[in-house]
Write a structure and sequence with these properties.
There is one protein chain. Helix content is 59%, strand content 10%. Strand 2, helix 2 and strand 3 (58-63) form a beta-alpha-beta unit. The chain is of the alpha/beta class and 279 residues long. It is elongated. It is built from 14 helices and five strands. It has three domains: 6-108, Glutaredoxin (3-Layer(aba) Sandwich); 114-176, Serine Threonine Protein Phosphatase 5, Tetratricopeptide repeat; 193-278, Alpha Horseshoe (Serine Threonine Protein Phosphatase 5, Tetratricopeptide repeat), CATH 1.25.40. Helix 6 runs antiparallel to helix 7, helix 8 runs antiparallel to helix 9 and helix 12 (228-241) runs antiparallel to helix 13.
Amino acid sequence: MSGEYVKEISAADFVGEVVQRSHDVPVVVDFWAEWCAPCRTLGPLLEKLAGEYAGGFELVKVDVDANQALAQQFGVQGIPYVIAFKGGKPVNQFTGALPEPQIRSFLDSIVPSRLDLMVDEARSAMLDGNDAGAEEILREVLAEKMDHEEAGTTLASLYLSQGDNARALDILAPLSPTAEVEKLRATARLTGAVDADITALTGAVEADPEDDQARLDLGKALAAAAEFEPALDQFLAVVRRKNDRLNEARTAMVDIFEVLGADHPLSLTYRRELANALY
């Protein structure tokens, strides 16, 4: 074993050297043993690639004979067994001494690309207060790859912080509907009425309880102010009337569930109420 990007660890080191370290750089864990012939083929290849990638990932080797409990924890049934960690979590794995082209493909799927590094640069600029510089970098990334999720969600978050919800939604439009993307879309839709006059809208609803548009407007204003429970009450009242405003009210409720998270008490309660009102 050699190289500055390769180390051998024990179970006691695993959290620090793998889980925590993978928040900064991808970590590839090679479960191996001295008696394993395929391990003696794969190990030197992984070490060579670690040097070639020059810090794009770090290689950690774990002797399964000396760390049997750790191997069992990760379900190692055959070796060599390789797991890639990013952000503190395992993201990919393979078993056996794969050919070099397949291993390169495996590594390329976890190592930050040039565009990924540009997103990191933009985030650093934002931390330094240089939002204009960050926006320029992120737009450059998206011009090259319009569905780059990290660039899109970062730029959309920047626009949301500036109150530019329409531009945030435009940036999010080409992205796949991951949990993060859907939460940002919901946030953009919900915070569009941030400047609305809640007192005036409340008065309008009190003056005419059957004015569903006023209820929708009040619900949106309350949601934009993060007053989610009264907002949900307003939307639910519109849903129960089952008229042409139903879909708009239902969508607004689902947006709040997205922002709060599926396990939030309000999400659990009002999702049931919504289902009862619809069916």
